[in-house]
Amino acid sequence: MTVKLTGRIDSSNAADVEKKISEEIAGNTGELVFDASELDYLSSAGLRVILRFKKANPETSVINCNSDVYEIFDMTGFTEMMDISKAYRKLSIEGCEVIGEGANGIVYRTDPDTIVKVYKNPDSLDEIHNERELARKAFVMGIPTAIPYDVVQVGDLYGSVFELLSAKSFSKLIAEGGDVDLLAKQSIDILKTIHSTMLKDGELPSKKEEALKWAEFCVPYLPDEISGKLVELFKAIPETNNMLHGDYHIKNIMQQNGENLLIDMDTLSMGHPVFELSQMYLAYLGFSEVDHNAIEDFLGIDRKTSEQFWNSSLKYYFEGKDEAFINDAVIKARIISYTRLLRRTIRREPEKTEIIENCKKMLCELVPSAEALYF
Fold it and tell me: What is the CA radius of gyration of the chain?
């Protein structure tokens, strides 16, 4: 049951407010929610009213507090004993530049100083708070990460706000004529920092567990000898504790005053770096393999430039390795990529039969000679 609180609750009216609320909720045994969107102030007398209802019903919460009311609850310790949430500032994205888009959200620049990631899921508040905690974890571990400082409401959706003064994505820098090789090196410098960060067991989700589901999903869509070997190859990938970004590409790397920062940290996980390499292959080449123009929509650059960035990335990531080693690592990553893309397309866009058939064709070509999917 939701009860709306309005105006002021202090010693002059606390008793009457408590009596009225008691009459309204008489017989209610479920969750009790106080909507404070129109509450301007409450004194210690008002706090005692809320506390008595909380003691009578442990499932009591307060929502939509303005900053002043929330501060009262916070300073008096109420936020530690019950669920109390702020009202979310409303923000319009009409006419705003789209910086990037992923599976979970779309990133907009709302003004020269600020970007906002709007989540596609209307019930995304848990996801938003989870991403904030992941970003903080990465930042503490030395990963150059932009940490969201506010949560806003955008229509019926929610978003995370980042302060990135005049920052540009690597995608935009390349589109404006930036040095592709230099930016690739800078992106790999960050990636090596991520992959060299070793986590404790279970500290982040296992990418192998997720990836094995991709392979198992594809079994009915591939010849028996291919699908059986594919699943065994995925099972044989070692569980490692390397940190992985999970969605690493040029739209998720921002440059601000010469400093490079990562956004979109909700895909952080842990596992063998081959999984990261496979995702990068999809971003730079795999998604646009059938339709070369698709890369323009996704990354804002042409396929030739994207391929150049991919090749430079390989050069710097595998610095010191010979060409045969690099080519073998790419084949392993491609097998994982086609598996993931096959599952994704069947589930989300089954009408795109060309992509589905290309994935099946490439898996049938590459899997038979593969001895392992890790390097």
Answer: 25
Residue with tokens 């706090």: 47
Give pTM, 2 decimals: 0.81
Question: What are the E-state strand segments in 168-292?
Answer: 168-169, 243-244, 253-256, 259-262, 269-270
User: Of 125, 128, 169, 168, whose CA–CA distance to 148 is shortest?
Assistant: 128
- Where does the chain show beta strands of DSSP type E? 2-9, 32-42, 60-65, 83-86, 89-90, 97-101, 105-111, 114-119, 150-154, 157-163, 168-169, 243-244, 253-256, 259-262, 269-270
Select from 116, 127, 121 the least CA-distant residue to 152. Answer: 116
User: What's the length of the chain?
Assistant: 375
And the tokens for 10? 């202090």
Distance (Å, whole) CA 284 – CA 302:
10
Beta strands 60-65; 83-86: pairing state: parallel
Task: Tell me which DSSP letter residue 40 carries.
Answer: E
Each of the 375 residues of the chain gets a pLDDT tens digit; together they read 999 999 999 999 999 999 999 999 988 778 999 999 999 999 999 999 999 999 999 999 999 999 899 999 999 999 999 999 988 888 999 999 988 777 788 999 999 889 999 999 998 988 898 888 999 999 999 999 998 888 899 999 999 999 887 889 999 999 999 999 999 999 999 999 999 999 999 999 999 999 999 999 999 999 999 999 999 999 999 999 999 999 999 999 999 988 999 988 989 999 999 999 999 999 999 999 999 999 998 999 999 999 999 999 999 999 999 999 999 999 999 999 999 999 999 999 999 999 999 999 999 999 999 999 999
